[in-house]
Amino acid sequence: MSAYELRKNALVAAATRPKRDIEFPRKEDGRPKYSSEVYGENVFTLKTMAKALPKPIFASFLRQRRGRQNLDKTTADSIAHAVRVWAMDRGATHYTHWFQPQTGATAEKHDAFLSLLTNFTPGGEESTAIDQFSGGELLQSEPDASSFPSGGMRTTFEARGYTIWDTSSLMFLRRGPHGTAILYIPSVFISYNGDALDEKTGLLRSNEVLSRAACGLINLLEPEAHVNHVYTTLGTEQEFFLIDRTMYALRPDLKITGRTLVGQLPPRHQQLEDHYFGRIPGRVMRAISEVELECMRLGIPVKTRHNEVAPAQFEIAPIFEEAAVAVDHNLLTMDILHKVAHRHNLRVLFHEKPFKGVNGSGKHCNWAIATDHGENLLDPTVRPETNYRFILFLLAVLRGLQEHAALLRVAISSSSNEHRLGAQEAPPGIISAFLGDQLTEVLDAIEEDRPLKNFSVPQFQSIKVGGTVLDVKVAALPSIARDLTDRNRTSPFAFTGNKFEFRAVGSKQSPSFPVTVLNCAVTAAIQEMTEALRAQMGSKPRPSEEDKLVVIRRYIAMTKSVRFEGDNYSEAWVAEAARRGLPNIKSAPEAYTYLIQEKHKRMLTEEIGIFSDGELLSRYYILNERYAKDVIIEAETMQTIVGQQILPAALEYRKSLAESAAALKTIGVEASPEIDTLNELTPLTKDLQAAYVALQEAARKLIDHEGHDANVHAQFAHDVVGPAIARTREAADALETAVADKFWPLPKYTELLLTI
């Protein structure tokens, strides 16, 4: 069967495939269950644990969970027994320590609850099958550490590594085959020597250091507050594409690299701006509804679903949770999306830029800081100009951003996100913060020691100063609440009412490292500002209002360079950012060098201390190696597609035209249309052939270059091979419009984006 016939069959299959429907859970009387009744039914919650354990054992676990004591063997064994019974009653046959190696994905190794008990009898040994799960098995497992990225910390013959139960994240069940289930134990992953080999360990460490620093500042400002713990909250808006799985199967570039290496935009894509928040296609609605049901059962609070800007692009977003749990839930959601999409004959694409020329996908990380009393430290309240605690924490975030913007750029840098940043509504690579007019006015008024200006908008005179009420001038419509700030979609780091939205994070990234870096940068700033406040207050038991204002005014002036309210895409901003001294990092390999730059390295390893020198250096090597490998894979995939599919298609079309022209001439019919088409096609084919040969040479040099320093190798991939891939794509895309459709071997953008 020809490639053209496969494409057409795929289109027919997409249009005629039967729909998959599932029934929402129902009560015994047949009525649908409320979402709240389904929520968390597959989670071993604290409430479930409390019912299953003796009170002293449960109390001991809570003390350990709060960091007040170690988990003793008796408690561990009791929890292991309780969770095994709970899991096996629900069909579990296996358990797994679920962890986050530095691969961008999660990992798991399944072990059975089944064990053999050997009895020695006069007649010999006799084995009895039993179900068993000990506290030791709950607490840790041993995957092969040499088979995961370690950045040189581990060698092939040093294989031992440990996964350790993260007691701050609840255990849960996931369905397995044939009606069985698997018990998942959220874990960290460390080497034999105790070095972090995963994404989660650094995040948990960063949460602890931020808590200590924030509690220190709050209790200095308000000793009566008695704040003992501070934590970061996170809400991850997950963007993704959904395309027909049969179409996906015919695109080797999508299967291997996650993005289309060739392809022309269809005549109609997102330019009419009609897809965003439009009606969700029925097939997609069925899939996302099933995803939401699975998420509810796992205690993942998915709140929002909608069409995104590009065709076939969508978003789901959860309610905020504690950051480490939110990361677990985001990674689980991505996996659920993948599996459920497969059941609906769809394929989910998490690559940041799977289709050239339309919106890419991000993972907007909405981040805030809260106390153990439930107070959001980034809530401006009604009068932010007098809420000095809020102002100090706001300035700490700005100061952390100002001092370590390059580190945040490292945290969002990858070969895939590089295609997205700065294009089609994605934020650029210059890290700055957007506060909005009102908060900017608050900071300016404090700095200048003057009253706040009276905000007014001529067409809406009933807008109150403080931005709380908006009258839309239609009698039948009520006045509405208005947020303190507008949104700036071009800003990589925007304040959005009571949180910051880190918009630059890529859609397929784990949020762990970006949030870890953000936590550390803010922690360093809180420590710096706390010391400044102590120096200002001298021997006084607590700072006066004037002491606070002195420090606040100093940091308002200091952090002006990182605040920007305008269009982050404009050339004027690039020049202005350079004048302000903000780093304008153009590539991922360039960004990676800042990870081991002395200033940032000292903050992460000495001042904050969440990484050892070895752990930080290993991450540097892993990032560079991953970048170069991604580019090599793309180059080799492009060579395969061009050499085995696109060039043969162009040559076959040329042959068909030539044969037609010759046949027409033999019967005395003018063949100028065929000849003109041939003359147009020939230089395009030669251009692609030349680009293909140049790409082969560039890829060979990159492979030969592997012995060099990791960053030099990655930079070579960016500077030499990346442009060679782009030139080959340009030549291939020019041919796509010249070659007759029946000869073209790959599903086109029209078929990929517009057939769901």
TrEMBL record:
Q: Where is the GS beta-grasp domain?
A: 93-194
Entries under PROSITE patterns matching the protein: GS_BETA_GRASP, GS_CATALYTIC
* Domain GS catalytic per the UniProt entry, residue ranges: 199-646
Biological process according to GO: glutamine biosynthetic process
Please give one Gene Ontology molecular function term for this protein. Answer: glutamine synthetase activity
Q: Please, which domain of life does this record's source organism belong to?
A: Eukaryota
The record's annotation in InterPro entries points to:
Gln-synt_C (IPR040577), Gln_synt_N (IPR008147), Gln_synth/guanido_kin_cat_dom (IPR014746), Gln_synth_cat_dom (IPR008146), GS_Type-3 (IPR052725), GSIII_N (IPR022147)
Q: Which SMART domains match?
A: Gln-synt_C
The entry sums up its family as follows: Belongs to the glutamine synthetase family.
Protein's name in the database: Glutamine synthetase/guanido kinase
Q: Tell me what organism the protein belongs to.
A: Coemansia biformis
Q: What is the lineage of its organism?
A: Eukaryota, Fungi, Fungi incertae sedis, Zoopagomycota, Kickxellomycotina
